[in-house]
Design brief:
The chain is an alpha/beta fold. The chain contains eleven helices and ten strands. The strands form two sheets. The chain has an eight-stranded parallel β-sheet with strand order 9-8-7-6-3-2-1-10. Helix 6 links the parallel strand 7 and strand 8.
């Protein structure tokens, strides 16, 4: 079946065109976090309940939410859990653990039927891809291309999430080169959206981090967004700004938004207040950058150098109209 995406990526975007997406697809890593916070075991039902609470509190502000099939999808389909103006994204990946890693290997989750998910309300699917320096690229590339084909056949947006990991034998532990190499390898595989780790995990100086983000833009042919894992929470707003200035279109983040609430005395209240404030604050940066790009494109089109017949007075009026439209979009966001 030919892919039919009538609204392109807009179902995952804010009116400005920016992506301000919430990720709550963590599985055993989330169980570990909750267990550390409560000093006790965490049941499947407790995982589902946390996800439901996070979705209810945060989806009204998010342009889209990413959930997993095992624990999040049921919560997302609960009446009232996800805001009607928030796009639904489902993880299409299945993880295998090892002695050293909770997520050591990833494959496409064949338990999931994309067409069924679409009928249930999904707008997109996401695939995590582990990049290691000592594993052959062929398997990764084949899996990504298979994933993209399946999404197209089901009429769903495809989101890939390459993440850099150490070599299997542990001899190469530097993950920074892997972030760029993964983008070089998988940035032009037909995906609709690319979810990237922050270069240097935000730990370099601003100029260096920005330069690395610019490299991602050169290697990735689709729009791309950043994730928050590995970035210090207090640093995330700054690196988000840097990434958006260098070509990113927003974020698909989880830990930076809801993780601090796990350790709060009242988790439910913290999700409704503190986490909401964080999501609101993070959304401002990609919105500003998106509006600047829109205004820049419009001004380019009406530049007197390219429209000699446009009088200076009319040019100034057109500029004012563009700025007014930008302000209107910002208010809608």
């Amino acid at each position: 079946m030919l892919r039919q995406l009538e609204d392109g990526l807009s179902c995952l975007q804010r009116p400005s065109g920016a992506f301000a997406m919430l990720a709550i697809d963590q599985r055993e890593t989330l169980r570990t976090m909750l267990s550390e916070a409560t000093n006790g075991p965490v049941s499947d039902s407790e995982l589902v309940e946390f996800k439901r609470q996070a979705l209810t509190a945060l989806s009204p502000l998010a342009s889209a939410v990413l959930v997993d099939q095992d624990y999040g999808w049921r919560a997302a389909l609960t009446r009232g859990a996800v805001s009607t103006n928030c796009g639904l994204v489902c993880a299409y990946d299945r993880f295998t653990a090892s002695d050293r890693e909770l997520v050591a290997n990833v494959e496409i989750d064949d338990r999931v039927d994309p067409s069924t998910l679409r009928r249930q309300g999904a707008k997109a699917l996401k695939l995590l891809v582990i990049w290691r320096p000592d594993e052959p690229a062929g398997r990764r590339i084949a899996m990504v291309e298979d994933f993209v084909r399946r999404c197209r056949a089901a009429g769903l947006i495809s989101i890939i999430e390459p993440v850099s990991r150490p070599s299997i034998d542990g001899s190469i532990a530097d993950r920074q080169d892997g972030i760029i190499n993964a983008a070089r390898e998988m940035g032009d595989r037909g995906q609709d959206l690319y979810k990237a780790e922050v270069p240097l995990f935000g730990r370099g100086d601003d100029r260096h981090v920005g330069a690395q983000c610019a490299q991602l833009t050169r290697h990735i042919s689709s729009p791309w967004v950043i994730l928050s894992s590995g970035v210090l929470p207090e640093r995330f707003p700054e690196v988000l700004e840097l990434a958006c200035k260098e070509g990113a279109s927003g974020f698909l983040a989880g830990r930076a938004i809801w993780k601090p609430s796990i350790y709060a005395h009242d988790i439910t209240n913290s999700l409704k207040t503190d986490a909401v404030d964080r999501l609101n604050a993070y959304a401002k940066s990609p919105t500003r950058q998106s509006l600047r790009r829109q205004v820049g494109r419009e001004l380019w089109m009406i530049n007197p150098l390219y429209c000699p017949s446009l009088q200076p007075q009319r040019f100034r009026l057109a500029v004012r109209i563009c700025l007014l439209c930008a302000r209107t979009l910002a208010l809608r966001d």
